[in-house]
Structure formats: C-alpha cells, structure tokens
Amino acid sequence: MSAALSIRNLQKSYSNGFQALKGISFEVQQGDFFALLGPNGAGKSTTIGIICSLVRKSAGEVAIFGIDIDKNFAAAKQMIGVVPQEFNFNQFEKVFDIVATQGGFYGMPRALAEKRTEKYLRKLGLWDKKDVVARMLSGGMKRRLMIARALIHEPKLLILDEPTAGVDIELRRSMWQFLQAMNAEGTTIILTTHYLEEAEHLCRNIGIIDNGDIIQNTSIKALLKTLSKEVFILDFKEILKEPPNFGDFSGRLLDEHSLEVTVEKGQSLTKLFTLLGEQKISITSMRNRSNRLEELFVSLLEDKLPAADQENDTDALEGDV
Amino acid sequence: MKCAVIWTSFLTIFRREIRRFVRIWPQTLLPPVITMSLYFVIFGTLIGRRIGEMSGYSYMEFVAPGLIMMSVITNSYANVVSSFYSAKFQRNVEELLVSPTPNWVIMAGYVLGGVTRGLLVGLVVSLIALMFTQLTIQHIAITMLIVFFSSTLFAVAGFINAIYANSFDAVSIVPTFVLTPLTYLGGVFYSIDMLSPFWQGVSHLNPILYIVNAFRYGVLGISDINLVGAFIGIAVFIAALCCWGLRLMVHSGRLRQ
Question: Is residue B55 part of a domain?
Fold first, then answer.
C-alpha cells in the first residue's frame, strides 16, 4: 500500500537565494493523523504549498497515494483538500456559493456539489449561514467554512494549516471531534499547529521541521518516551513559608500553597509524595508545568541552536510555540 | 483529465464571472451605459450637428460604431483585470490553483466572462445608439466576428495585466495610460483621412484603429483600413497574448512562488 504522502529530498530555494527547504524526506501513511510542527519560518507552509501546487519546488519528489505530482498533478490534486492558514475565499460571496463553486472546480456536477455543500455545511454547523456573505461571518465560522470547502470533493488526504488559530476553546474542541471523526472514517490528515496540546491530543505521528530540515520524524508516543524530565506543579492546603526538603528531587516554592518539582526520568513520583507526606504536606492537585510535547519541542529546537545563543533564545522559542 | 470534468470546471468559472458582474451591476453595467449616453448626446447630437457629414454619413452615424466598440473593449478588459486581480488580492485564486483545473481552462473561463460582459454592454450601448440614430448593419457576420475577436483580445490582455499587477494602481495603469489614449486616437471620433500623411502612418500602428474600422465596415460598410489585414492582425495578437498568458500561469512568481 503506497503512502498517503511521500516526500523525497524536497528542496526549495527562492529567487533571493533563501533556502526554505534543504532536502527534506518523510512519509505519511494512509489513515494517519500526522502533525507537522516547527517554529515560524521553519518551512512548514512551503512544504504544504508545494504539495498543493501553490509553491514550485526546486528539486525532489512528492507523491500523493503513489501519484508523482510531476507526472500527474491533476490526479494527485483530486485527492488533496487544503485548509490554509489565511482566509482565502471571496469575502463578497455567499457561504453556499463558495463551497458549491469549489466542487465545480473539481469537476463535480452542480447537483452533486449542492448536495455535498449542504452535507458539509450542516456537519460544520454553518447551514443556517448558507445565504450569508462570507465577510459577515465570525472568525471561527470562516475557519469552518474553509474546512467545508476543502471537503467538498471528499479528499483522501486533508491538510490543515493552523486550523484552530484564533478559535475559542469550545469551538476548538468541537473541531477536534470533527477531525477525529473524519480520520476514523479513513481520511488521512496532516496538521500544522502552534498548539502542541492539539498535536498531542489529535495526532499519532509527528514531523518536526526547523530551518528547512526535518529534525524529528516519529510517533508521538515514541517522542514522549524520550522526555528526560517533567516539571510538575503541586498544590497543597498547608501554608509553607520555606521550601521543604526535596530529597533527590530539585524543586522550589512558587508561593505558600504550591511547589514546582522536576522529576527526572527513572525517578518515582511515589517517593516524592512519601517525602512530602513525611513533612506533613498534603498534595491536593498536580499538573504539568507545560505541555509535555511543548517541552520536548523546545528542547529539540534548543539542541539545534548554537550553544552561545541557547540561554538568550530560550524564552523566545517558548513564546513562539 | 476527462472532458466532462474540464467542461464542468470551465462552466463553474464562467458562471461565477457572470454572477460577479451581475451582482455588482451598478459598478459594471450602469457606468458604461451612462457614459455612452452622454457621448451620444454631446458628441452625436449637440456637437455632431455642427460637424456635419463624415465619410458620407452624419456624424452620429459615423461615431456610433466606434462608441459601441469602445465600450466593448474597455468592459472586456476591465472585467477580467479587476476580477482576476481581486481573486489574487483576496487570495481566493488559490481555490483554483489547488484544484485540478488546467491553467488554460482557468484563463478561458475568465476571458469568456470578460467577453460576455463586453458583449452585454455593447448590446445595451447599441440599443441606446438606436435612440439617437438608425444603425443598419451592412455585414452581419463581419460585425459579429470583429466584436467577438476584439472582446477576446482585450479580455486576454486584461488577464495578463491582472497577473502582473501587484496593486490596484497597477490594475488601472494600462486602461488609463494605454487603452484610453489608443481608443481615443483609434478613429472612434474621426476618420484618419482627416490627418496629415505622417499622422495617418502613426495611426496605422494603433491596433484599435483596425478594430474600430473593421467594426465600422461591418455596420456602415466604410473603412479606413484593409479588412483582411485587420482580422489577421487581431488573430495573431490573440494567439500571442494567449501564449503569453498561459506561460505566466505556469511560470509567474506572482501566482505561484
């Protein structure tokens, strides 16, 4: 069975000499939910642009379900649905027309396009807005409109570039459910996102791209196993004025009701609780300081930075994730 | 790709273009009608009476075909350049670029949309002209062909302009500084027989002179130029511009990085 997406030695150099992609290679298997992560300017959007023909590659090979885009791009495009990061529909057209017209661009007869338009507008909660001019929609509705438009030809591979950027939590959760249902029905999904919680929650496999190179391509489970330490915030009901004894652990008092403790790989949480219990500290809640994938992501990118820059740039990288 | 798929894509683009210019008719259909009505009143009726005959016809009869053709040309051009540039500006051109629709179908859809608006405006302006003068078409086939060819030529030119344009200013540069002067100096309002030999020679470099005169021949049966040469010239220009436009669709960095 051929991969849903196969990329070999993909390179892109712009006319100003900037090399956005330095020969990346990776595969996304059929049925996968794949996260393509990286900081701004890493090459994610360039990669997606090449896959869907908005960017011309300088070298390399791209195949969609075994179809080489250099040999039969039209057939490959039939299998791809794209939800871009920026709103890219005609703001003056009605919601229904935007989606149905896209069906026409894929060669769908008008009757079928209208039927599918109704199906996906209903699924995405936009049916009551079908006659509204697109510019009147809220940001979240515009994002859902772009998803409906991308699904009109029922692609086997759906590519979403930051689909939940600027979307409120409730809507984000409902979009996650929708995407998970799509994936369960067999659609291969590639997602780029800055919300690493989103990638961890939705995706099975991950590719991390930085500075035009793939620096990690594995399953999220395998990646999380490489996490050498986790930082926890522990809340307790007692009032502490001084830091407790952390034993083998490193930690600090955040305020009189909470501690931050770093647990290295191999250390036991039970031992930590016992140690604190002996000091009459009753833990009432516990959470990760930040998303686990986020910590890994930052550490991976830090490893790529020159040593002298690491200290200064850490905050910037964390803020960028 | 299957013919049926290509045909559906083409019809979709074409219908969307029609829907666009009909939806914004106060911007697309009404202004040329008002402008041309004023031309007919001022140049045809008020000033035309004092000018007298030109090439054996009343000035109104002489000027009417030129004004009709002027509206066809400018509207065909304006429709494509503004529609395609707007699609670039709003980035909804990406809807087409990511789809399997071939480049030539995209161009054909936009061009035929422009041609349709040009012909529609031409028809309305012709009806207005009939309120001021009698127009008896002498050669109907030539009239129809020249209108269609000219409209196509300028619609393709508008498409190329839209690809190159990177601002709304760039969209209006060609119509304002190239198309309008060429149209006014292309024998719409006068016969080039009135010019000195030197300026007659210069006028022969203006493609719009051939278009206006070929149309005038179709309507009135008179022309300042060689008709066969005019048709060949227009056909060559259409072919050249189509090749240019398609090349831009494939290679232009203004559509695909």
Answer: yes
A24 pLDDT above the threshold of 80: yes
Instruction: Please tell me which of A75-84, A213-222, A256-265, B208-217 the model is most confident about, judged by mean pLDDT.
Output: A75-84
CB nearest to B99's CB, from A75, A88, A105: A105
Q: Which domain holds residue B7?
A: 3-251
Question: Domain extents for chain A?
Answer: 5-224, 227-288
- Among the partner residues B11, B92, B102, nearest to A88 by beta-carbon distance: B92
Return the amino acid letter for B198: F
Q: Report whether A135 contacts A82 (CB < 8 A).
A: no
Least confident of A75-89, A105-119, A300-314: A300-314
| Per-residue pLDDT tens over the stretch A219-248 | 877 777 776 677 888 888 888 888 888 888
- Number of domains chain B contains: 1
Contact B96 A105 (CB under 8 A): yes
Q: How many A/B residue pairs have CB atoms within 8 Å?
A: 81
pLDDT in tens, B205-253: 888 888 888 888 888 888 777 888 888 988 999 999 999 999 999 888 7
The complex scores an ipTM of: 0.83
Cβ separation A102–B16 shorter than 8 A: no
Q: Does domain A5-224 have CATH number 2.30.30.50?
A: no
- Would you state the pLDDT for residue A305? 43
Tell me which residue of B95, B19, B4 sits closest to A103, measured CA to CA: B95
The verdict on residue B257 lying in a domain is: no
Alpha helices in chain B (DSSP H): 3-23, 25-28, 30-39, 48-51, 59-89, 93-97, 103-132, 140-164, 168-174, 180-184, 197-203, 207-220, 227-251
Tell me the average pLDDT across A293-310.
57
The answer to whether the CB atoms of A90 and B13 lie below 8 A apart is: no
* SS3 labels along B166-214: CCHHHHHHHHHHHHHHHHHCCCCCCCHHHCCHHHHHHHCCCHHHHHHHH
Pick the residue of A47, A71, A90 with the most B CBs within 10 A to test the interface with B by mutation. A90
Average pLDDT over residues A108-127: 92
Q: How close are the terminal C-alpha atoms of chain A, in Å?
A: 35
Residue A307: pLDDT above 50? no
Are residues A107 and B11, on separate chains, in Cβ contact within 8 Å? no
Q: Quick check: is B256 in a domain?
A: no
Asked if the structure places residue B46 within a domain, the reply is: yes
B74, two tokens: 């400018």
